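thread from #wetlab-drylab

HS: before we spend reagent money on co-crystallization trials with adenosine-5'-triphosphate, can we at least see a predicted complex? here's what I'd submit
DV: go for it
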Amino acid sequence: MSSPPQHASTRRQRCSILSLLITFSLFIEIIIVVVIVVVITIIIIVVVVVVVVVVVIAIIIIIVVVFVIIVIIVVVVVVVVITIFVVIVIFAFFFLIFVVASFIVVNDVIVDVMIIVVVIIIIVAVAVALIVTGIACGKSTVTAELEKRGIPVVDCDKLSRKVVEPGHAVFDKIVKKHGEDILLPDKSGLDRQKLGDIVFKDAEKRRELTAMVGPAIFMEITKALLYNFAVGTSLVVIDAPTLYETEHLLYLVSEVIVVAASQETQVKRIKERDGLTEEQAMDRIKAQMPVEEKVKRADIVIRNDDSLESFQKQANEVIEQIEAKYKYSLFVLWSLPGIALIASIIVGAQFLRR
Ligand SMILES: CC(C)(COP(=O)(O)OP(=O)(O)OC[C@H]1O[C@@H](n2cnc3c(N)ncnc32)[C@H](O)[C@@H]1O)[C@@H](O)C(=O)NCCC(=O)NCCS
Ligand SMILES: Nc1ncnc2c1ncn2[C@@H]1O[C@H](COP(=O)(O)OP(=O)(O)OP(=O)(O)O)[C@@H](O)[C@H]1O
């Protein structure tokens, strides 16, 4: 009768071992799950932190790089602008010294240097178109239209009149060379027709006269161009009938416009306009390079053998063409240094007066 209780106790023992095992395995499972959850959470946190850190660093790097690039661009632009401005102001100041000095000391070297400096300024800064014609081909008609449109015209024939007025050194040289007979009866100036009759007949005398008058005309042209540079003009037209004969101006110009007419037309117009004889007209025409030769070298040709209306129409088309081409040529860039140049002239003049 003792065996059944033994079985019961054994079963109980087994049951308690089994429940212990189950509890233990549950415990282990819970620990494993907790460990897994903790590990996954840590991994997620680490990944999120790493991603956030990387993104933040990337944003910071991008901001820094963009900022550095902007700073570099700003610094470069400021340095370049200041450098250009300072160079031009210094340049303008030294140029002024040349100008004033050349008025005080008439020294050929200074004048030459000055001219080279002006020529460089003008080539860089101002578009210069040039009108060339034979005598009575019609350039005054074109220049009148240019002036109507506000385009400055430097008229070499007018300048050649100005530099031989009494009181100018060139006037004295011409009188010294040709004697007082070359003066008007009241001695108020040169008898231009008389002088013309002499020089248009004689190539050597014409060459001598050009050598006397030419440098003074060239100085006047450079002064006029410098003035236009200083006030920021983008296009200047030089009216130079004898451009191809003298050639100096060719280095300055961006565009050569030739106004051409046949020889018969020239003679007819000279006779009508100036009251000269056929022979006097031919002397003047022959003194110049043939118009057709000039036509060959031109950039733009305007023919003037027909009616005034058709000539004016052509001239207007050409003017519109060059006006559009050079409308904005460096105006903005150069008007400021131009003002600096004028300021330098005032300061320099006071400096030299001391
Ligand atoms: C000889 C001068 C006094 C005659 O004066 P005038 O009033 O009678 O004529 P004007 O000056 O209007 O000239 C008439 C025509 O001849 C042309 N011309 C003038 N000088 C020259 C020259 N040396 N060679 C060729 N053509 C000339 C002009 O361009 C114009 O088309 C005058 O032309 C003069 O001083 N010329 C020398 C200066 C010069 O070379 N001028 C050219 C323009 S830059
Ligand atoms: N198409 C035309 N028809 C008729 N007359 C004209 C025509 N073109 C110009 N003329 C006249 O011919 C003359 C010469 O013209 P303009 O004075 O314009 O020539 P220019 O080239 O300036 O002469 P110069 O070289 O002597 O200074 C003027 O009297 C002008 O009125």
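DV: The pocket of dephospho coenzyme A (ligand 1) is lined by residues 135, 156-157, 160, 164, 192-193, 195-196, 199, 206, 209-210, 213, 217, 240-242, 245, 284, 287-288 (CB under 6 Å).
HS: ok that's useful, forwarding to the group
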